[in-house]
Design goal:
By secondary structure, the chain is an alpha+beta fold. The chain has 30 helices and 30 strands. The strands form nine sheets. An eight-stranded mixed β-sheet has the order 22-21-20-19-25-24-23-26. The chain has a four-stranded mixed β-sheet with strand order 3-12-6-7, with helices on both faces. Strands 27-28-30-29 form a four-stranded mixed β-sheet, with no helix packed on it. A hairpin with a 2-residue loop joins strand 14 and strand 15. It is flat, with a radius of gyration of 47 Å. It starts with 24 loop residues before the first helix and ends in a 6-residue tail after the last strand. The relative contact order is 0.06.
Length: 1098
């Protein structure tokens, strides 16, 4: 029998708080402390997981743990975040239900690590394959990029996320990832210009200065010393356990994997450097003649270097820091900025530049990781958002974050109770409504369109006249004085007048997690977040590739006089349209899994204390345990319940033959469990009190001990019998083997004696036979010798006669041949002088000139037929090689010479083309009837006709095309039908790009704006690359109306495909599956051509 593990087996404390009895503040914290002391950092509350950050590594995230939790029920093993991730993934894959995992908690709670664990688990358990692995790697590598630009060191966490992130991971019907979409919320951009004591700016600044090479820093005009930059805090620049240099290399590698091009990465680093330079710009006051103060840049060196990085005119940006232009209808008013206003403008520009760069990074990552397929996708959402924050000094950021958590709490409670109620309805269980605190009144206090705090803050920001933080607080005191969750010392409510814990410049809101005191200082400025239009327009004038994308409002042609929305308005709108909120409100409650992650406040080992109770209450849904406890504390389907407890009843043990529900009813009746302690649903049994469940577990534990004793008894008896039978069998085996050995030894002795007698007898018989055979052989040899001597004598006599007759015949033949030769020479002398010249010429043309005319390096010459022609042979060879220089094939040599000037020592394919003649018309287009239609279309003389491959951008594969080159046009036609696909006039060609490798790829680049360039450039591949490029270059040189064609030889070049530019990159590698050069699409903007090192193109 297989014994399955369960949440209740070997349980330390209570693994699910729903089963905690009694439930109180003390028992809740004591249970968490008991589990934490045994390294059990995860605890369930229904479908919610509580995680206590241990601030040290634990061996609970190994590949073995992944396999242990794979395809297991949620409550089958001890609590773990892998169980939550597996439950969500299996619901998405098997039940076709979209999922959402919510991760929240205070700073330092481990939210970022939890989201990484969820993504790594899903990546480990989903399918495999080249494309799937590529998608998984891109999704995982997006984290280091976002952490570098969006995380920072705080007093509570060395890697604190300073933005909210929601990632949609899209899957196909098999459960394999197809891509993803990332949404970011509320980047803490104020950290760019100012950090609290003991904290750092965003990681990327320190990583760039620590990990970039000296050449890179020189190009970016930066130095490694952190103290050179005003925006970087020095008291915590170095963090123990963080290697900024190594992290910089990791981020660069991650950006390449995600799909960033080299020029894009360089542009991003230039903007980061520009932010550092911007912080070093300082201003000095200068009085004008009219008595007003004006700001001027104190040291223009940093301003100059920043302008050089961004491609901005220094005077334009300097004026934007000194003047502000206000437009109202048709009027423009220019006012000077004092020093404080100039510093505000500088910091606003720095914050906007960095925040917009971060948003562009998220958009660029989404372009690379988005799903390519157009079919319907399954979605798993992972939300990593701020938890509730209560600091000693709470400002606008904490107000916005706590507002977001109020909305989360409202929806979470509603869905938790709704899920519980719907399950009771499905199972036919009676349900009693539970009264719970609805925090909608707090949300209304903050977001009401008329009297909400955010609405009044926006109204105060837009109001003309003197507007300060104090006027905003006065307005709150007037409008919200009677609200039960609003407290202020200066409000009309008299009960707070003597509350000395409430300062005059603060107000307090009673949130669901407790009261929070907010200081109004800075609320107006942070909500305004105003960037002067002069600075936006100055940024738009930059020549940098990214700046114009980041500041579209700076376009003078699209001037918008409408005031930009405030930060509070933007965040309220984003909260209202959160994709995860829409998912939770739209989909059924059981289709989303939520995890709440929380830890104590110290970065050292946690200490449990009573203040921890108030921390626990800040996580949405943790205190909704009472809501679940008001119904039934435990529920389970009939089959697992019967399988677990069937040994408690003799009628159900060991096998129950009927329906599972009837077996459970028999079991509960036999155990005499009171009927009011449980109820039967349609598919589950519901247990009301945890004591009943613990009673069943105790009985099961006792029964298992009895069964273990029985199994041990049976096992020991079986082991003793087995040992006895083994000894008996061993004795029989040993006896059999000994008897066999004795008989074999006796048999070998008899066999040896018999063999010896037989050998002596056979030897005597053999020697006797040998003597007789030797005598017969000697007699035969004597007869043969006598006969041979006689036949030899007869043969020599006959040979002498034959030789004499042959000598006589040869003398007659020699005399006759001499006479005939004399007669022939007399007749031949008459005609030799007349016909000798013509015969020599025909011999030279047919035997020498014709074979070697087209091979310029061929120095071969036939050997002389007779020795007396030695002088004539040498003279004819010299005359022929002098005459061949003026032969009509001289243009061939000129083409070869031009090819040498273009490609020699530049392209690896050139040496193999030297010995090959340039044929030109490889298709014999004028003679082949197959191309008669194409020959009629082309009017000019065809200089080059060959079959090439047109490379497809989508998959890197080639399509065969006929390539025709005339004096005026380049024509591409279909190989099968001969239909013209494209005709490009030579003046429309600007350049040709080829690689330095031994491949046949080349790109024809067209002039922008011409009719030929509508579909973009052509990327082709040919076996006669050298000849095609040479003839193209000669055609462009000889034509009067054509500019000289540029030949670009590089291993990486850009090709324009319609509206997009694609980089074609050539790399060397070993041939795969016996193939040669291969082209493969890596992403939307990269084609990679793999050229084998041993490749040889004809």
């Amino acid at each position: 029998m297989e014994v399955k593990t369960s949440l209740l087996d070997n349980m330390i404390g209570v693994g699910d708080m729903v089963l905690l009895e009694p439930l109180s503040e003390d028992s809740f914290i004591d249970n968490l402390r008991k589990r934490f002391d045994h390294n059990e950092i995860y605890t369930y509350i229904g479908s919610v997981v509580i995680s206590i950050n241990p601030y040290r590594s634990l061996p609970i995230y190994t590949p073995d743990k992944v396999e242990e939790y794979r395809n297991r029920n949620f409550y089958e093993l001890s609590p773990h975040i892998y169980a939550l991730a597996d439950e969500a993934y299996r619901s998405l894959r098997d039940q076709d239900k979209d999922q959402c995992i919510l991760i929240t908690g205070e700073s330092g709670a481990g939210k970022t690590e939890a989201s990484k664990l969820v993504m790594s688990y899903v990546a480990a358990v989903c399918g495999k394959g080249q494309e799937v692995n590529k998608v998984k790697e891109q999704l995982l590598q997006s984290n280091p990029v976002l952490e570098a630009f969006g995380n920072a060191k705080t007093v509570r966490n060395d890697n604190s996320s300073r933005f909210g992130k929601y990632m949609d991971i899209e899957f196909d019907f098999k459960g394999d990832p197809l891509g993803g979409v990332i949404s970011n919320y509320l980047l803490e951009k104020s950290r760019v210009v100012k950090q609290p004591r003991g904290e750092r700016n965003f990681h990327v600044f320190y990583q760039l200065l620590s990990g970039a090479s000296d050449d890179t820093l020189k190009k970016l005009k930066l130095e490694r010393d952190f103290s050179k930059y005003n925006y970087l805090s020095l008291d915590s620049a170095a963090v123990n356990g963080l290697d900024d240099a190594a992290n910089f290399r990791t981020v660069r590698n991650a950006m390449q994997i995600v799909g960033f091009m080299e020029d894009e990465m360089q542009s991003v680093l230039e903007l980061v450097a520009a932010v550092l330079k911007l912080g070093n710009i300082e201003f000095k006051p200068e009085s004008r003649c009219n008595g007003t103060d004006e700001s001027r840049v104190k040291d223009k060196n940093d301003l100059k270097e920043m302008c050089e990085l961004l491609g901005i005119e220094q005077s334009v940006l300097e004026r934007a820091f000194s003047y502000r232009t206000v437009e109202a209808k048709m009027e423009k008013v220019s006012t000077t900025l004092n020093v404080s206003q100039a510093y505000y403008a500088r910091d606003a520009l720095a914050k906007n530049l960095y925040s917009r760069l971060f948003s562009w990074l998220v958009t660029r990552i989404n372009e690379s990781i988005k799903a390519q397929a157009k079919t319907r996708h399954k979605v798993m959402g992972v939300l990593d958002i701020y938890g509730f924050e209560i600091f000693e000094d709470n400002s606008f950021e904490q107000f916005i974050i706590n507002y977001c958590n109020e909305k989360l709490q409202q929806i979470f409670i509603e869905l938790t109770l709704r899920e519980e109620q719907e399950e009771y309805v499905r199972e036919g269980i009676e349900w009693t409504n539970i009264e719970y605190f609805n925090n909608a009144v707090i949300c209304d206090l903050i977001e009401n369109n008329q009297n909400g705090i955010l609405a009044m803050l926006d109204e105060e920001c837009l109001r003309p006249g003197t507007v300060t933080d104090e006027t905003f607080l006065d307005k709150l005191n007037t409008v919200c004085a009677e609200h039960q969750h609003f407290e202020s010392r200066l409000s009309k409510n008299s009960k707070f007048l003597t509350d000395h814990s409430l300062p005059h410049n603060c107000f307090r809101i009673q949130h669901y997690a407790g009261k929070v005191l907010y200081r109004v200082e800075g609320f107006m400025d942070k909500n305004n977040d105003l960037l002067y239009r002069d600075l936006s327009q100055a940024m738009y004038k930059a020549n940098h590739s990214l700046i114009k994308q980041l500041f579209p409002e700076g376009n003078p042609a699209k001037v918008n006089l409408k005031r930009p929305p405030t930060a509070g308005f933007q965040f309220r709108a984003s909260v209202g349209t959160f994709s995860f909120l829409m998912m939770l409100q739209t989909f059924p409650a059981d289709s989303s899994s939520c995890g709440g992650i929380q830890s104590p406040r110290q970065k050292s080992l946690p200490h449990f204390h009573r203040l921890f109770w108030s921390v626990i209450k800040r996580v949405p849904g943790l205190m909704e345990t009472e809501g679940e406890r008001a119904g039934y504390a435990f529920r389970q389907t009939y089959e697992p319940c019967l399988e677990r407890y069937k040994m408690l009843c003799k009628r159900t043990w060991p096998h129950w033959r009927g329906p599972a529900r009837e077996g459970v009813e028999v079991l509960m009746t036999d155990l005499q469990v009171p009927p009011e302690e449980f109820s039967y649903g349609r598919s589950k049994i519901f247990i009301r009190n945890p004591r009943t469940l613990f009673f069943l577990e105790e009985r099961r534990k006792q029964c298992l001990e009895d069964l273990a004793t029985l199994i041990q008894k049976i096992y020991r008896g079986w082991k003793c019998r087995t040992h006895f039978l083994l000894l008996k069998q061993s004795q029989i085996t040993v006896s059999a083997w000994y008897r066999r050995y004795a008989q074999q030894k006796k048999y070998k002795r008899i066999k040896s004696a018999t063999t010896l007698v037989q050998s002596y007898t056979r030897g005597w018989q053999a020697r006797k036979l040998l003597r007789e055979l030797k005598y017969q052989k000697r007699c035969k040899e004597a007869v043969t010798t006598i006969s041979a001597y006689w036949h030899g004598t007869q043969a020599r006599r006959e040979l002498r006669q034959l030789k004499q007759e042959a000598r006589n015949k040869h003398a007659v033949s020699v005399i006759w041949a001499g006479w005939q030769g004399t007669k022939v020479r007399r007749e031949y002398r008459k005609f030799f002088r007349a016909n000798a010249g013509k015969k020599i010429y025909d011999f030279v043309i047919q035997r020498i000139v014709t074979p070697s005319l087209h091979v310029p390096i061929d120095r071969s010459w036939p050997s002389r037929p007779h020795l007396f022609l030695d002088d004539a042979h040498t003279e004819l060879r010299r005359i022929f090689h002098l005459w061949r220089v003026s032969y009509p094939t001289q243009p061939v040599y000129e083409e070869k010479l031009e090819a040498s000037e273009i490609f020699k020592d530049k392209k690896a394919l050139y040496p193999s083309s030297v010995s090959q003649p340039f044929k030109g018309d490889y298709l014999e287009i004028t003679k082949n009837p197959k191309y008669q239609k194409l020959n009629n279309v082309v009017e000019e003389k065809v200089l080059m006709a060959d079959v090439v491959n047109k490379i497809n951008r989508a998959n890197g594969k080639g399509t065969a095309r006929i390539f025709l080159l005339t004096k005026k046009n380049v024509v591409l036609a279909d190989q099968k039908t001969g239909q013209v696909k494209a005709s490009v006039p030579l003046p429309d060609l600007t350049s040709v790009s080829v690689s330095t490798q031994s491949d046949g790829f080349f790109a024809l680049k067209l002039k922008e704006g011409t009719a030929s360039a509508v579909k973009g450039d052509f990327l082709l591949s040919s076996e006669h690359l050298i000849e095609i490029i040479t003839k193209l270059h000669r055609a462009g040189t000889t034509a009067a109306d054509v500019e000289q064609l540029n030949i670009d030889i590089s291993d990486e070049f850009l090709v324009q495909f319609k509206q997009d530019k694609v980089c074609v990159k050539f790399i060397q590698g070993a041939p795969k599956n016996g193939s040669g050069v291969s082209c493969k699409r890596k992403n939307n903007r990269l084609l990679e051509v793999s050229v084998p090192t041993t490749a040889a193109t004809s």
